[in-house]
Amino acid sequence: MDQDRDIALEIVLDVWQRAELFLAGLMRPWNLYQIGIALALLALAWLLARLVRPRYHNWLRAREGWPKWRLRFGLQLHRRMVLIMFVLLVWPVVWLMQGVTWPSRSHLLAIIGTLAFAWLAIALLTRFIVNDIVRKVVRIAAWVWVTLIIVDLTDETRQLLDSFAFSLGETRFSLWLLLQAAVVLTALFTIARFASHAGAANISRSEDLSPSMQVLAVKFLQVVLYGVAFFVALRIVGLDLTGLTLFSGAVGVGLGFGLQKVVSNLVSGIIILLDKSVKPGDVISIGDTFGWINTLGARYVSITTRDGKEYLIPNEDLITGQVVNWSHSNKFVRVDIEFGTAYGDDPHLVRRVAIEASQTVNRVLSARPPVCHITGFGDSSVDYILRFWIVDPSQGLTNVRGEVFLALWDAFKAEGISIPFPQREVRHLNGPGTAQAEIT
């Protein structure tokens, strides 16, 4: 630790001396001239950007047929018009000065132009990173590192970062090693992400795989790609994990106890995908939740109900609990509705009218004809059950029941069939003034 502290102090003093020499060199006449030229070019770039920006903005708005990524890139050019103009102005001046005078008299201006071009390129390229936080972190880190390369301070910076270190077992972790690992991991994970998205798109277009097998193949591809990216990154940075065997074992035991439910849901998700008990698009009901499966995740199943709510059901609940899959082997679903008619109505006529009325509803299948049966003789009515089939349970069950009930109402009214309701007769004994009453 003392040796690392001495190295860090030596590096800081060396950088400080070089900074003093650099600041003293700025006071030389030709360096001041170059700084003045750079400031003048920056002012000219600002004026040109003021003139070009409105015309470029109008031209960009007229490009309606362009894809979104191209429009966004054009918008980035609009926002950085001053820096673009400065880069376009500074390099011709540098080349002109190198041709007519000594190279040392344009060296500082060339460094300024290189920095400006590097910052512009980084700002435009990092715009393709979707995540805002990751994009900002990558952009700032790239700006800092490119600046260090241009001003020739990479070796000192690397030694300084490597001096801040700690040991864990036999493995030495330095700030430089951790930064390397973060950069390599980010790069490889980004490549793995693009590869997994491309592979998922190809798998989803395959007609030979069932929906559940498509989800399983995508999850397996993601695990393989991210796992390979992780271990390849560790190999690239030269991190030796053999010294962390005891530590990793303790961490593994702790994670095993703390993440029991997470692992259970992951394993349950794999089982669901393998046995194909549920798949995207199936209509299921679990408990009081009824809806169709939107996505199968590694930890949960997303179920969308008819009222637009999205429930995230843990995979373990689908394995251990009772699940009604309305479309497991096929899409046919039988719907039952119960009703009653008066004793004075002909039951043969009631059954025929009920079947014909239900067939007038569009969603009721004619290939599987409805049936109507008497289920009992109630206190006030003859009880019936009407059974019909539909093929689109994802469109809802309550609404099709309501349409069939309306069709029955209209048909019964046309045929003079009445739907009774319970009636009670209250008879007062010994006159209306007494408190005793008989209810029949």
List keywords for this structure.
alpha+beta, 14 helices, 440 residues, elongated
Would you tell me the structural class of the helices and strands? alpha+beta
Gross morphology: elongated
Q: Return residue spans where pLDDT drops below 50 for at least 5 consecutive residues.
A: none
| Strand runs, count | 12
Detail the topology: elements first, then pairings.
Elements: H1 2-25, H2 29-61, H3 68-79, H4 81-100, H5 107-125, H6 132-150, H7 154-163, E1 165-168, E2 171-174, H8 175-204, H9 211-237, H10 245-258, H11 260-275, E3 283-286, E4 289-296, E5 300-305, E6 310-314, H12 315-320, E7 324-325, E8 333-341, H13 347-358, E9 371-377, E10 382-390, H14 398-415, E11 426-428, E12 437-439
Antiparallel strand pairs: 1-2, 3-4, 3-7, 4-5, 5-6, 8-10, 9-10, 11-12
Helix pairs in contact: 1-7, 2-3, 2-4, 4-5, 5-6, 8-9, 9-11, 13-14
Describe the structure in brief.
With 440 residues, the chain is an alpha+beta fold. The protein has helices at 2-25, 29-61, 68-79, 81-100, 107-125, 132-150, 154-163, 175-204, 211-237, 245-258, 260-275, 315-320, 347-358, 398-415; strands at residues 165-168, 171-174, 283-286, 289-296, 300-305, 310-314, 324-325, 333-341, 371-377, 382-390, 426-428, 437-439.
